[in-house]
Design brief:
Blueprint: H1 2-12, H2 15-23, H3 26-38, H4 42-70, H5 74-80, H6 85-120, H7 132-137, H8 140-160, H9 163-189, H10 194-202, H11 211-225, H12 231-237, H13 245-275, H14 286-297, H15 301-335, H16 339-359, H17 374-402, H18 404-412, H19 420-446
Helix pairs in contact: 2-13, 3-11, 3-13, 4-10, 4-11, 4-12, 4-13, 4-19, 5-6, 6-8, 6-15, 6-16, 6-17, 8-15, 8-16, 9-13, 9-15, 10-13, 11-17, 11-19, 13-14, 14-15, 15-16, 16-17, 17-19
The protein binds 4-fluoro-L-phenylalanine.
4-fluoro-L-phenylalanine binds near residues 27 and 223.
Length: about 450
């Protein structure tokens, strides 16, 4: 059964497309700009770039190689190498993280749908009003309605098994998204006052550096590159033996980072041009507050709003399908659920946890966990706590069980392995200690 669903998926997907399609999503467009705005702009960008091209690179290479060698998703891969019981839990941790991400991911997906609907119905300008976003989030009905709708779409695709169609959509969608992003960036950075935002985002100001910058950038790196959530093991397992792992990693890295930087250049200059930089700390709502103002002031803004939110919606759906699919297939493969049962369990958990996140802005707004609303708490729990642990487990698996040499040999079957020195250095000496420090700091910081 496992083989059947695996090969069906693999025959239709190129690794790069699949990995890039799952990598580019709300993380790049919604999450990256608000974190960059909040954590010092240029200094956040610099830390992010360094992490992505050293650490991120190492983790993508490792996870996809382990997947390709074993032809299994994380739980199976850990078993394959005969990891200890304790370490096997690491495989499960990797596999279970998407189950905690996809519910709140779908809440944000719901926000995108709502904005698309607003622009489609010709009311785009109302979205640019100062309190529009706040009003929207404080309405429990609206939050739950759009979240449930988004979840239904995701689950219909999973139940209907049309995920291959979805990949085809993303193939067409990506180039249009890049093109539109460039148009919006051009407009955004040329607004009066926007240059301050461009400088804020691109020029590092070292006085803004703190451990929080690193914690946030690391979490974002995991999230955006789909690392430490089992996804890349699974994609690796679909990967043909003759694909150059190093090259595909590089492509995914560069493409994903480029989209994030474009999103930063769309949003952050607008925060300066339209709000004098007051909203830098707005958090998860930043994109929804800043971009409607840009669209409102530009020619054909209503139309641009429709196309933009449609593309973001498509990117969000492809990502949420990949997240949910990975949970469903873990349940199928490891717990021997039927596909229907696996999908039903996943959908139920999504609905429960996502509703809690959606209500955290209104009915449950008095509920604060470590001073965070419910959505931010799930975001923190997965990105800053669970993913560092999952990544540590992967590194320990490589160092203690699989051995670096084995990974190296596998990579070298198809690649020159140009960044081998970086790889070895990061995985041998840096990764585990760095992750432990980050983990402890972020957990202590939450209290
Ligand atoms: N990397 C995606 C993003 O940046 O939005 C999130 C994601 C999507 C992670 C799909 C994992 C995945 F399977």
């Amino acid at each position: 059964m496992e083989k059947k669903s695996r090969s069906k998926f693999s025959s239709k997907l190129g690794f790069v497309l699949a990995a890039a399609g799952s990598a580019v999503g709300l993380g790049n467009i919604w999450r990256f700009p608000y974190l960059a705005a909040k954590y010092g702009g240029g200094i956040f960008l610099l830390v992010y770039l360094i992490l992505a091209f050293t650490f991120g690179y190492t983790m993508i290479m490792t996870e996809s190689t382990l997947g390709r060698m074993t032809e299994k998703s994380p739980v199976g891969a850990y078993k394959h190498f005969g990891a200890s019981k304790f370490l096997k839990a690491g495989g499960w941790l990797n596999a279970i993280i998407p189950l905690l991400i996809v519910p709140y991911y779908s809440v944000i997906g719901g926000w995108v749908m709502k904005y698309l609907f607003t622009y489609l119905s010709g009311n785009g300008s109302s979205a640019s009003k100062a309190d529009a976003f706040a009003k929207f989030t404080t309405s429990a009905q609206e939050q739950v309605f759009w979240f449930v709708l988004f979840t239904l779409i995701t689950m219909l695709i999973i139940f209907g098994g049309v995920r291959n169609g979805i990949e085809a959509v993303s193939k067409i969608m990506m180039p249009i998204l890049v093109f539109l992003a460039i148009v919006i960036v051009f407009y955004s950075v040329t607004r009066p006052g926007a240059i301050k935002g461009v400088k804020y985002f691109l020029i590092p100001n070292f006085s803004q550096f703190s451990y929080k910058t690193v914690v946030a950038a690391l979490g974002q790196m995991f999230y955006s590159l789909s690392i430490a959530m089992g996804i890349l093991y699974t994609f690796g397992s679909y990967m043909k033996k003759d694909i150059d792992i190093e090259k595909t990693t590089k492509q995914v890295e560069i493409f994903d980072t480029a989209i994030a930087v474009l999103a930063g250049l769309m949003v952050i200059p607008a925060v300066f041009a339209f709000d004098g930089g007051k909203n830098l700390n707005a958090g998860p709502g930043l994109m929804f507050v800043a971009l409607p103002k840009v669209f409102n002031s530009m020619g054909f803004g209503g139309f641009i709003g429709v196309v933009f939110f449609l593309l973001v919606l498509l990117a969000a759906v492809t990502s949420s399908v990949a997240l949910a699919e990975s949970v469903v297939s873990t349940f199928e493969d490891e717990l021997h659920f039927t596909r229907k049962r696996a999908a039903t369990v996943t959908a139920t958990i999504m609905l429960i946890l996502g509703t809690l996140s959606a209500l955290g802005f209104n009915v449950l707004s008095s509920v604060k966990i470590f001073n965070m609303d419910i959505l931010s708490f799930f975001d923190f729990l997965t990105n800053s706590v669970m993913m560092p642990i999952a990544a540590i487990a992967t590194c320990v698996l490589v160092l203690k069980v699989v051995k670096i040499k084995t990974i190296e040999d596998e990579i070298k079957t198809t690649s020159k392995f140009r960044r081998k020195i970086v790889y070895n250095f990061v995985i041998k000496y840096v990764a585990i200690i760095f992750l432990l420090v980050i983990l402890v700091t972020s957990v202590l910081g939450a209290f």
